[in-house]
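Researcher: Structure prediction, please.
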Amino acid sequence: MNDSVFIHTQDQLKQLAADVLAFAREKGGTDAAVDISEGSGLSVSVRRGKIETIEQNKDKGMGVTVYIGQKRGNASTSDFSPAAMRATVDAAYNIARFTADDDCAGLAEAELLEMAPRDLRLCYPWRISTEEAVELAKRAEGAAFDVDARITNSEGGSVHVQQSHFVSANSRGFSGGYPFSRHTLSVAPIAGKGAKMQRDDWYTSVRDASKMASPEAVGRYAAERALARLNARKLDTRTCPVLFEAPLAAGLLGAFVQATSGGALYRKSTFLLDSLGQSVFPKHIQILEDPHLVGEVGSAPFDEEGVRTVRRNVVKDGVVQGYFLSTYSARKLGMQTTGNAGGSHNLFMTSSSTKRADDFAGMLRKMGRGLLVTELMGQGTNYVTGDYSRGASGFWVENGVIQYPVEEITIAGNMKDMFQKIVAIGNDTLTRGNKSTGSILIENMVIAGS
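Model: Predicted structure follows.
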């Protein structure tokens, strides 16, 4: 990675962080932490072959936390001058003076901090010009239009390029940071005319642009998805098996993460309260967290508090082995941080019963008769009770073969039951953000239709 894409080097950011911690000590703080970052990016969008937006961003920021015993204050600035940094420390200190003591506040214990972070090679700057980015977006959208004359419109094609770096440091000896990147190409075509129009989209998002799917492949697949939804029908109300397509299956994994995260647990606002050591899934389900994969979107050698991350089995043979905890939430629960301040890392949800034949077509055959869900609408998950109700569209399946598209339905159940009723996970694995899973087959759910 060449630091020349940034104004400051990593060493310069580390020196700024050290200066801030020194200011905090001078002020009288008993502990302090600082996060400093800067980045740059480019976003372009086109619609029907014409440029809609071009945005370029350069940003930087600094966040300071000062502790006075177990009182905590935070302040931030985008000015890296010594005077501004001192003023920010002063502001954080003064806020801390007037806050109440919190028995769980404070930095992570020194022995948990990652003092020798490994290089996971997370930054691949994409030196692409605005003209080149526009051309890629046009190629993706053009490929969608070329698939079929029934692709009549488009919500556009877009390219987003971002590269940033940061340094975190605290008064217990931790100082670490690294550069990272994320680049995305997407397109959203519309098929049909009038009241019978259907839209869909597809995207590719990676750290290294050389691993990005071609704009033609993205455009064609997005168009095929939109075309497949034409002439959708309604269903009457029924109970049947439901197959969540892989991109949506990642959302089910995300729901598990949210329900077993520290904030929800110590507030007692989750349907998976006290689930540690409990069989939340069938025995064939495994969930692995691996933060140390080179070049992956969800990789990190340490969390937002500087705590070292670890590879671990979050769920083994259906049994919950660990939560997702920060230092604060762990203390509230009388436990130890899991290195998840800021969220989960690379998660892999698999089934020990998955076979080579369990590709997407194989999963349809395994379901036999039921609903394939390809889109969800609304935010119908109650994390306190686990009740789940989402607007949906997809395809009706008979004898393992897609028969016709369906729309204007609602799927409903309870997340506890849904997790227990996972029949199979396909090997059609897809990564969305930091979550990887194949399509997920639920034994049955209620379909509310006409």
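Model: The two ends are 56 Å apart (CA to CA).
Researcher: Thanks, that helps.
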